[in-house]
């Protein structure tokens, strides 16, 4: 297929001519049509355009795109035909110049190549063919063509292939068939360059090209051609590997690895077999590169992979064979890259060989590798680490531990390369790399020390988290101090001294080249670098140290607090690196700065610059006022020294004059306002002071912000010494505002705002002893009045906030004053909360208002608990819900406010944290802490990432403050530990990296708090280490790290707070965030797995309720799966409480509870749960059996819930339980329990609204279904099918068919051999139960059981028979019926034992025949007598035989069919058994004979058949031999025919007997039995008529006849066949 794709555009005619004679082929090529416009024809005929002019013209016109080819196969014109024509003209012109020129052909070729590279369209076929022909003529010229010309001709073909690859490739493939030395070398070079330039486009030509190349390999003779062939193979194989990586970019269908490797493998075998042993160095290098490329390709095919690995050792062996090993490393690197792409398993022996070879090259001190070679070796090591990280790290560890100095240097260099790698798997192992390098940090060798320093420099440039695992900054200064100490000793030789100075310079270089632009690195370095400013031994490092610190300080000043959000992993860095005392820092810098600025390499200047950048670090009060306040301090000191009132007045006037002439909005004007206020404060002339203050109050243009600020500065500074005068001046000016006609103008609003700020600023600067007396009425009252007059103004709100903040600070600065309380505190707080609600979310008023609330909350009177809760809730809502800049842009707002919005966000979060800390300090920590956690709970589980992120920042500050304030007493755990752990844990997998780090920081602080109350060590350091892994990219890595953190936190979580933890974690589990759900689920499972056994029993029911509510609250599979798994773990540790809690759930059982029970049944606890439920059901059954029958209806309904709930749960467990053996083992307990519940519900109405019973269900259906599930696990399918077909399950729950269902069930269990001794023992007590239903069920079961020989083998007959005999006197008819059936079944189950109990059995059965209360009892007695007499003879029965016969005779005319049938059957049995008592039984037969004959026509066929059978058995006892004989020979007659025959014989032989028959029939007609009536009427109507007819025909001529006459006449008729036939 590849060959066909490569030859699609081949022109067979041109190629044939070209192969035979390239020169003649050129003459056949002509340009189609004119290529220059007609109006330029005259100029072009006389003058030829130069190629450069033509190219320029073409470039100006511009390339025009068009279709590659038209429908006719040629190239169609593009959208700009002029451009195509011009381009063709340029190419044609250059080709014409090549025809007749020998010198300068290389230059023309280069011009043509340049033109072709600018081609964006397609040339005409003729032009393309001509270019190919011309170029190939020079490529194949035997002589006269220089190598430069051939090279340029090859370049033209490569450039042409940019748009006409198929054409060029088709010709090149044809020339591969015959290589003729140097003339064909450039064909190969062209092929190589095409593969290098168009790797992906050449893939379709791989098969044809490489196959053709393999066919001519044997003809390669010269080493030069061999190298060229190897180059072709290398580039084409590299192109194949490129395709494997980037096949998505190709338009053609994807090609398989086996398909592309097939043409490579023959080349691989040939080169490996014939060219590997070449001696020339250049040939060796070419073969190496080709083999490496082919090995990389063959790795992708499973069938060739082993061959590729076999050549690896040869490749490594070449390090010893070649003079320049760089080529070997290049091939090895390429091969390892292919291994990494394929991700195949590396043989261990091969891996060790690669490690050893690469490391040996790095350690070569005799011929050290070049920088390029060293870099390639390091790349090999990085690839090895990516392929087999564990083995590579072990190898490096061994070299660092026990290797030589060169080994250690090389190992550290490899680790440096690994740190430099951008691979995600390498970033995750940074802490391990750091740990490895730490093992050699004390190495005495200077080379190793320098390698470690280089590693640190790379680490600082690439990873802040990696730096936090090791104090790398400390190591730099330690090495510097170490080198300085060794140099100071003076005992080193020149070489050693040079090495130590090199170490010193390297320390300075590493520190001086640090990049502090990364936020994480900056936050990490700041505290650690500050430590080394003060010690004198680091003086030599001060210049780079000061420069770094100054850059960090400037960065922090410009970025503000944003770095905290950008680098949360470094929040705890100050704990790792304590800062030096500010006093020591100031003293050291002053000492260094006192020296000449340029001395010591510029240390003095660096110290001064650092001192200027660190004012806030030296002291917080200095801060931003450093530059502004020092001149004012000089002014104030000067005025105090001068002490002249006139001089001060003059100074103030001079300052006022300069104010008027200074530029507006300049720093000079701002300073002059401050200086004027300072001068007025020092002035003793009160009149002058008042005039000046009133002047600035009245003349200020308040809408101009700079003038308002100037006025504020003047008045407030004046109040330092003239407080009351300033107050009176401002109040007087306020009075003038009331008389203004327009009170809502811009000027008026600005004036009010400025005055509010003035009051706050005056309070700050007022003398403390005077402030409290005026604060309530003169300051707070006036501020509120000004605000109420214009509260709709945003500027006024901002001024109010600022004023309240400064007033609160001023009051707080007065100090302890027990009697003072700010009466208007609550009014101010309410006003501030209204400001927060009224202002937009992104308003800068928000953070300032929170600051004001914070300062105000510290003042007396103290707020109540609910007030604080409400205060914090409103502040949190205002801050946490701030919109991000990107959200504002999405909503259509301008992006210009983004920096401002970010600043507002950061400031709001910081001040909210301060408010939380202030509230926590204001009252006992545990109480307030609980309220604060409840407020934050809503935002920690928010669906918006930005809200969670901000809430976490507040939580960080809250926990830090709580840790400081809380009184940690041993044994008193943090009350909110469980809730916070449950809320914070899932956030370690938040989508925001900032949130993940903050959550981990909170957990670390929470563990520190918990560790202070126990004897356990804090795990906060371990969590801090795990924080570095929370920056992982993959979700699985994040979840793994989060789970590891969970294990640490759960170890410290108090067991008494399990419910709090579960409640909090379920909130996160129900969120819509996928990662949040997974993290919450893992945290919950980890907690239950780690601490499940320690959870208090009292906590379990609440936890079950929480987990059940979680199931009801979500339909998503993931959270439901976690909730089910959590319930399993809880049940594993506390099975009994969990089951008790679940069984408290009222029916109906919803789908969630069904899923929960099935989940537990499906788990490894399923068997234990089934056992437990079985015990509970059995206990519930016993209690229900003992329940008083007089229980009220509602009470009994509620009591019935427990067995039903247990049974429902049991059913769901059985549905999914896999263990059949266990169910069979529990059958003796399950069957009685369920069968007992079924029995108890017989005849009851469902009083409970359970919702699970259908309209056709019965109260016992639930238990029957459970019983069916139990037996489904115990019985084979054939038995189950039998039970279904017989309708056993419906019968069991039906009161009318219950006994039949029990008997059928018992029968199947007996045949299936599932009636163990324990089952019998469980059911036997029911025979004497007070419950009639239980007695009925048990009697029916044992009535069927005694049929089996099991009772005889297990010695159960005697007690069972005794119990059955007792039940025969039961007041319940059905129980007596089942007892009779059981007594009768004894004949089947224990026939040999029956004789010993015959008297009792026969007595009971006879009594049953006399049972007038129920026909069922009599029927069962008849059937039982049939069975018993079938086993006993008449002699065994004795005199009872006659009694039985007499009793049975009473049922021959019974209304019930079954009684008649069984009575006739019993008579037959009596006749069979009475052979030895013929005389006595003959009388019975004579008595019953009319009934026997009569019921031969019984309407019931079964009765008729039974009657016929009994008649046959009783026939031997008849007196008439003729009748006996006729009955004996009537087997083929029907019952009706037999009756006719008997009546005929009786009419002839026994008229008296016939008369008795008629008499009996007439009696039956008058009786109540409908069946007997029908039978009698039928007999009288048929038999009587027949007899009368026969009598008339045989009548003698006399008036009367006797019975004997009739009998004789009958005989006569019978003896005369003709008469008999006529009678018939």
List the helices and strands and how they pair.
Elements: H1 2-6, H2 12-20, H3 22-27, H4 41-46, H5 51-61, H6 81-99, H7 105-117, H8 125-139, H9 147-175, H10 182-197, H11 206-215, H12 223-246, H13 257-261, H14 264-274, H15 281-298, H16 305-310, H17 312-321, H18 326-342, H19 348-362, H20 371-387, H21 389-402, H22 405-420, H23 424-428, H24 430-438, H25 446-462, H26 464-468, H27 472-489, H28 494-512, H29 519-530, H30 542-559, H31 562-566, H32 573-576, H33 582-594, H34 603-613, H35 615-618, H36 626-642, H37 645-661, H38 667-682, H39 686-699, H40 705-718, H41 723-738, H42 746-765, H43 768-789, H44 794-814, H45 825-838, H46 845-857, H47 865-880, H48 885-890, H49 898-922, H50 925-940, H51 945-965, H52 977-984, H53 993-1011, H54 1020-1027, H55 1035-1052, H56 1058-1069, H57 1074-1091, H58 1100-1113, H59 1117-1133, H60 1135-1143, H61 1151-1162, H62 1166-1185, H63 1193-1216, H64 1220-1240, H65 1261-1272, H66 1277-1285, H67 1288-1293, H68 1298-1311, H69 1317-1323, H70 1332-1345, H71 1350-1353, H72 1357-1367, H73 1373-1389, H74 1391-1394, H75 1398-1409, H76 1415-1431, H77 1434-1437, H78 1440-1449, H79 1457-1473, H80 1478-1494, ...
């Amino acid at each position: 297929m590849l060959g066909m794709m490569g030859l699609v555009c081949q022109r067979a005619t041109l190629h044939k001519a070209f192969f035979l004679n390239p020169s003649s082929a050129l003459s056949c090529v002509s340009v189609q049509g004119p290529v220059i416009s007609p109006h330029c024809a005259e100029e072009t005929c006389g003058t030829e355009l130069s190629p450069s002019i033509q190219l320029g013209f073409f470039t100006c016109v511009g390339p025009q795109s068009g279709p590659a080819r038209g429908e006719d196969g040629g190239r169609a014109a593009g959208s700009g035909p002029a451009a195509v024509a011009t381009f063709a003209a340029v190419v044609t012109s250059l080709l014409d110049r090549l025809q007749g020129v020998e010198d300068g052909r290389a230059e023309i070729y280069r011009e043509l190549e340049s033109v072709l590279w600018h081609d964006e369209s397609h040339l005409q076929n003729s032009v393309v063919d001509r270019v190919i022909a011309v170029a190939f003529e020079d490529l194949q010229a035997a002589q006269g063509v220089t190598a430069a010309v051939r090279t340029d001709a090859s370049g033209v073909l490569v450039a042409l292939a940019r748009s006409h690859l198929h054409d060029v490739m088709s010709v090149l493939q044809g020339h591969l068939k015959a290589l003729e030395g140097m003339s064909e070398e450039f064909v190969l070079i062209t092929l190589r360059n095409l593969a290098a330039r168009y790797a992906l486009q050449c893939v379709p030509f791989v098969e044809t090209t490489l196959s053709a190349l393999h066919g001519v390999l044997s003809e390669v003779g010269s080493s030069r051609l061999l190298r060229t062939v190897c180059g072709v193979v290398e580039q084409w194989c590299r192109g194949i590997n490129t395709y494997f990586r980037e096949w998505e970019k190709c338009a053609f269908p994807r090609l398989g690895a086996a398909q592309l490797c097939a043409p490579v493998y023959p080349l691989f075998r040939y080169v490996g077999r014939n060219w590997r042993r070449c001696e020339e160095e250049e040939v060796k290098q070419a073969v190496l590169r080709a083999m490496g490329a082919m090995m990389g390709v063959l790795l992708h095919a499973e069938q060739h992979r082993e061959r590729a690995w076999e050549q690896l050792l040869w490749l490594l062996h070449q390090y010893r064979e070649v003079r320049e090993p760089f080529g070997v490393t290049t091939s090895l690197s390429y091969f390892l890259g292919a291994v990494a792409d394929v991700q195949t398993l590396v043989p261990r022996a091969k891996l060790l060989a690669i490690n050893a070879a690469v490391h040996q090259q790095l350690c070569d001190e005799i011929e050290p590798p070049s920088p390029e070679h060293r870099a390639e070796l390091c790349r090999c090591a990085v690839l090895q680490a990516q392929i087999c990280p564990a083995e590579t790290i072990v190898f490096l560890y061994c070299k660092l531990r026990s290797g030589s100095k060169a080994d250690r240097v090389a190992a550290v260099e490899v680790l440096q390369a690994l740190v430099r790698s951008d691979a995600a798997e390498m970033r995750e192992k940074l802490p391990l790399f750091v740990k490895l390098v730490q093992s050699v940090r004390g190495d005495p060798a200077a080379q190793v020390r320098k390698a470690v320093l280089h590693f640190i420099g790379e680490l600082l440039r690439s990873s802040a988290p990696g730096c936090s695992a090791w104090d790398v900054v400390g190591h730099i200064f330690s090495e510097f101090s170490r080198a300085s100490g060794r140099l100071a000793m003076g005992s080193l030789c020149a070489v050693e001294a040079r090495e130590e100075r090199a170490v010193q310079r390297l320390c300075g270089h590493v520190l001086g080249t640090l990049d502090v632009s990364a936020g994480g690195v900056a936050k990490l370095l700041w505290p650690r670098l500050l430590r080394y400013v003060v010690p004198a031994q680091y003086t030599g490092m001060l210049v780079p140290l000061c420069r770094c610190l100054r850059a960090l300080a400037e960065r922090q000043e410009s970025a503000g607090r944003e770095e905290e959000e950008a680098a949360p992993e470094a929040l705890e860095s100050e704990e790792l690196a304590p800062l030096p005392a500010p006093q020591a820092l100031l003293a050291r810098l002053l000492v260094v700065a006192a020296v000449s600025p340029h001395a010591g390499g510029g240390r003095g200047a660096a110290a001064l610059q650092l001192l200027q950048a660190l004012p806030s670090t030296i002291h917080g009060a200095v801060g931003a006022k450093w530059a502004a306040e020092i001149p004012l301090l000089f002014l104030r000191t000067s005025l105090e020294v001068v002490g002249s009132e006139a001089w001060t007045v003059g100074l103030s006037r001079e300052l006022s004059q300069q104010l008027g002439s200074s530029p507006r909005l300049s720093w000079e004007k701002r300073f002059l306002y401050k200086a004027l206020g300072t001068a007025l404060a020092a002035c003793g002339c009160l009149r002058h002071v008042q005039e000046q203050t009133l002047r600035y109050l009245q003349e200020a243009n308040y809408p101009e912000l700079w003038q308002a600020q100037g006025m504020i500065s003047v008045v407030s500074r004046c109040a330092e010494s003239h407080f009351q005068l300033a107050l009176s001046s401002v109040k007087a000016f306020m009075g003038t505002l009331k008389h203004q006609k327009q009170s809502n103008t811009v000027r008026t609003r600005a004036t009010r705002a400025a005055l509010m700020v003035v009051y706050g600023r005056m309070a700050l600067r007022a003398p403390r002893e005077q402030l409290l007396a005026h604060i309530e009425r003169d300051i707070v009252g006036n501020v509120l009045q000004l605000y109420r007059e214009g509260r709709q103004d945003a500027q006024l709100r901002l001024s109010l906030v600022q004023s309240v903040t400064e007033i609160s600070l001023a009051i707080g600065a007065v100090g302890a004053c027990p009697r003072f309380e700010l009466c208007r505190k609550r009014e101010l707080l309410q006003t501030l909360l209204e400001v927060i609600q009224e202002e937009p979310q992104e308003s800068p008023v928000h953070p300032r208002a929170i600051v004001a609330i914070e300062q105000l909350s510290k003042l007396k009177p103290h707020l109540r608990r609910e007030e604080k809760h409400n205060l914090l809730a409103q502040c949190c809502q205002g801050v946490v819900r701030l919109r991000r800049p990107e959200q504002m842009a999405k909503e259509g707002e301008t992006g210009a406010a983004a920096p401002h919005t970010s600043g507002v966000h950061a400031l709001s979060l910081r001040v909210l944290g301060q408010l939380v800390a202030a509230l926590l300090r204001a009252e006992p920590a545990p109480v307030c802490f609980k309220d604060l956690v409840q407020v934050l709970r809503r935002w920690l589980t928010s669906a918006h990432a930005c809200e969670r992120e901000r809430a976490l920042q507040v939580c960080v500050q809250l926990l830090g403050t709580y840790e400081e304030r809380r009184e940690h007493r041993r044994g008193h755990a943090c009350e909110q530990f469980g809730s916070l752990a449950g809320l914070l844990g899932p956030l370690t997998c938040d989508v925001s990296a900032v949130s993940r780090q903050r959550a981990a920081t909170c957990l670390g602080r929470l563990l520190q708090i918990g560790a202070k109350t126990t004897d356990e060590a804090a795990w906060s350091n371990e969590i801090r280490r795990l924080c570095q892994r929370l920056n992982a990219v993959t979700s699985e890595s994040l979840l793994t790290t989060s789970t590891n953190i969970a294990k640490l936190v759960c170890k410290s979580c108090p067991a008494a707070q399990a419910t709090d933890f579960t409640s909090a974690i379920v909130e996160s589990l129900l969120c819509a965030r996928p990662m949040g759900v997974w993290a919450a689920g893992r945290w919950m499972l980890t907690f239950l797995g780690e601490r499940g056994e320690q959870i208090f029993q009292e906590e379990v029911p609440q936890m079950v309720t929480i987990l059940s509510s979680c199931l009801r609250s979500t339909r998503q599979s993931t959270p439901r799966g976690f909730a089910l798994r959590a319930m399993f773990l809880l049940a594993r540790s506390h099975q009994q409480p969990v089951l008790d809690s679940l069984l408290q759930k009222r029916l109906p059982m919803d789908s969630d509870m069904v899923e929960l029970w099935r989940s537990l049944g499906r788990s490894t606890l399923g068997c234990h749960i089934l056992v437990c439920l079985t015990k509970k059901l059995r206990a519930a059954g016993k209690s229900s059996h003992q329940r008083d029958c007089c229980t009220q209806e509602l009470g009994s309904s509620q009591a019935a819930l427990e067995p039903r709930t247990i049974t429902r749960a049991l059913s769901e467990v059985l549905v999914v339980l896999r263990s059949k053996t266990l169910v069979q083992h529990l059958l003796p307990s399950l069957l009685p329990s369920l069968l007992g519940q079924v029995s108890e519900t017989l005849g009851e109405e469902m009083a409970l609204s359970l919702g699970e019973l259908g309209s056709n269900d019965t109260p016992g259906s639930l238990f029957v279904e459970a019983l069916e599930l139990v037996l489904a696990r115990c019985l084979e399918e054939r038995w189950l099918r039998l039970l279904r077909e017989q309708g056993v399950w419906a019968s069991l729950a039906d009161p009318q068919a219950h006994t039949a269902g029990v008997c059928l069930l018992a029968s199947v269990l007996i045949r299936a051999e599932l009636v163990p001794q324990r089952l019998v023992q469980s059911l036997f007590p029911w025979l004497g139960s007070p419950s009639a239903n239980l007695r009925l069920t048990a009697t029916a079961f044992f009535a069927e059981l005694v049929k089996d020989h099991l009772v005889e083998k297990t010695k159960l007959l005697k007690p069972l028979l005794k119990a059955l005999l007792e039940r025969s006197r039961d007041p319940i008819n059905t129980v007596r019926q089942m007892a009779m059936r059981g007594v009768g079944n004894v004949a089947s189950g224990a026939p040999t034992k029956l004789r010993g109990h015959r008297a009792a059995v026969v007595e009971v059965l006879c009594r049953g025949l006399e049972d007038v209360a129920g026909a069922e009892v009599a029927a069962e007695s008849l059937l039982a007598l049939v069975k018993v007499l079938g086993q006993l003879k008449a002699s065994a029965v004795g005199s009872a035989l006659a009694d039985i016969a007499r009793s049975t005779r009473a049922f021959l005319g019974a209304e019930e069919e079954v009684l008649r049938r069984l009575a006739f059957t019993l008579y037959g049995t009596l006749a069979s058994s009475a052979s030895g008592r013929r005389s006595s039984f003959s009388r019975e037969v004579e008595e019953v004979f009319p009934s026997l004959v009569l019921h031969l026509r019984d309407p019931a066929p079964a009765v008729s058949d039974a009657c016929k059978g009994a008649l046959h058995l009783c026939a031997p006892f008849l007196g008439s031999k003729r009748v006996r004989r006729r009955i004996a020979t009537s087997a083929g007659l029907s019952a009706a025919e037999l009756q006719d025959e008997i009546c005929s014989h009786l009419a002839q032989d026994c008229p008296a007997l016939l008369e008795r028959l008629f008499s009996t029939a007439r009696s039956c007609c008058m009786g109540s039995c409908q069946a007997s009536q029908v039978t009698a009427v039928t007999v009288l109507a048929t038999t009587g008529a027949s007899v009368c007819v026969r009598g008339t025909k045989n009548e003698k001529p006399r008036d009367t006849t006797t019975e004997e006459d009739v009998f004789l006449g009958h005989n006569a008729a019978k003896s005369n066949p003709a008469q008999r036939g006529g009678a018939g």
